Amino acid sequence: MFDxxxxxxxxxxxxxxxxxxxxxxxxxERLKYLxxxxxxxxxxxxxxxxxxxxACSGIAGCAATGPRVLFGGSYVVDDFALVLKGxxxxxxxxxxxxxxxxxxxxxxxxxxxxxxxLASVTGAVIMASARDLITIFVGLELVSAPAxxxxxxxxxxxxxxxxxxxxxxxxxxxxxxxxxxxxLVYGLTGxxxxxxxxxxxxxxxLQSEPALVLAVVFVIVGFAFKISxxxxxxxxxxxxxxxxxxxxxxxxxxxxxxxxxxxxxICYQAFAPVRSIWGPILWVVAALSxxxxxxxxxxxTNVVRLLGYSxxxxxxxxxxxxxxxxxxxxxxxxxxxxxxxxxVLFYAFLNLGAxxxxxxxxxxxxxxxxxxxxxxxxxxxxxxxxVTVFFFGLxxxxxxxxxxxxxxxxxAVLGVFESPWAIALAVIAAVNAVIALxxxxxxxxxxxxxxxxxxxxxDRVAGRRLAPxxxxxxxxxxxxxxxxxxxxQLLAFxxxxxxxFVAAP
Amino acid sequence: xxxxxxxxxxxxxxxxxxxxxxxxxxxxxxxxxMSVELMLNAVNLTFVAAxxxxxxxxxxxxxxxxxxxxxxxxxxxxxxIVAVFRxxxxxxxxxxxxxxx
Lengths: 505, 101
Known about the structure:
The structure holds two protein chains of two kinds.
Chain A: H1 4-26, H2 33-56, E1 68-70, E2 75-77, H3 79-104, H4 111-129, H5 133-151, H6 158-189, H7 194-204, H8 210-226, H9 235-242, H10 245-270, H11 275-298, H12 303-319, H13 330-365, H14 376-379, H15 381-395, H16 403-414, H17 420-449, H18 458-461, H19 468-486, H20 489-496, H21 500-503
Antiparallel strand pairs in A: 1-2
Helix pairs in contact in A: 1-2, 1-4, 2-3, 2-4, 3-4, 3-10, 3-13, 3-19, 4-5, 4-10, 5-6, 5-10, 6-7, 6-8, 6-9, 7-10, 8-10, 8-11, 9-10, 9-12, 10-13, 11-12, 11-17, 12-13, 12-17, 13-15, 13-16, 13-19, 13-20, 15-17, 15-19
Chain B: H1 5-25, H2 29-54, H3 58-88
């Protein structure tokens, strides 16, 4: 019998996004919020099978033990997939909570927004299980295509249009480049499943075949666009600034994490025999992303652009454990994999929290320019405290959650062996951690120490209340930032169970 | 002279480079988008040629997925380009310079 249990999250998400359209069609104008409620319930319902699937592998009466393999190895539901599916659904829920109040304060019709967001989350959930070239490509396009439209959500706004078109052109270009690499990989190995590709590379002795090097480079470049790593990052700050802010939050977490999932599965499984090709490439990309992202972030005056460049830099930190992969033994590889996954998990909560705080402050202040945020502490002390928590969290100041992933990342790159390249990369990362603190602390300084700007439109909007959904999103992310800072093992546990992915042949 | 799969690979490489040059050199959003479609067709040609050479069905199946995804991208892309054109009366990407810094 077909294993419907393993596909339950995707099926529920698929049904929900159709239901969201149907609800949008039938309900009258004043009940439109039901579309958002449907989407939220669907996301929560899709998370339930993840728990039963995770619990199932240990129970005797359960049908399958261990990873569930579907469609001839193209689709695998293992612990790695379950953890990442959980992350995508949680980031979908928080992005949805951020969007509800934002959409209601807008003139734009909102029904399709939830449909597009759900479709993008569905694509990410599929990517977590995809174990062949075509499934992962279709998953990635399902993440991206709705995201192009979400970025251009405000059709009448020239900046939103521009954000959307820039995102679209770079997105399809990266897809084409990645796909050309994939077609070369298929031509050389005769396989499209990751396991088959890895076997064929070893069996045919393709490790130093120039065409395979070219193919690996093309695939890596395609994913580098998706995770906005330098030098393929130029679209990200423009898109984040022009897109609606909740969409920017989703792009910088959900869509970016989906890119990392694709990169992780392809690099550590399909391209495992050619670690000496992608390791050095990602060393350079990681070093450039951290340095360029942070240096440009230093001179930003707009807080959304600042978060855009800082998310490029965080992408560099996530890539650091990849860089020395060629020299690792099996245990070291598992450590590196764990390091990247853990960073993605912690970063998701911190960055969603930071965007939630930005949305809340913009609601009060009416501006994303950092100078207009001066003296926020005088009239909104709670928001000022939240801005401090999230920005210092992203900077990695203990005891907030950001310190732990950086610690794991340094341990992954330095702990296993000594190599001048590893030490050099660790030094670059350490310097960048300090640079990042400068601009995060700069925002906090403005909020607490500067005077309220004379011409700020504060009086007009200071009385506005925050939407309850936004308050809920702030509460979830703030609680996560503080609790996971003191007890990082609670979240790191989920990173730990993914180590088995590398051990698998 | 027989036409071996190598010739198809060479043709697809040429198509890919033409498409990539189009993206990098042309400034009209529609033409850039056409260039991407050319690159995707280069990919399809590689998949089919490799599938023929390897006597494996995977490559030909892949082409169907790529074609469907490309069609979906056309829908999304034209919608975005039309939205931009309505606001600005131009499809040149050089005019899109409000967001920078």
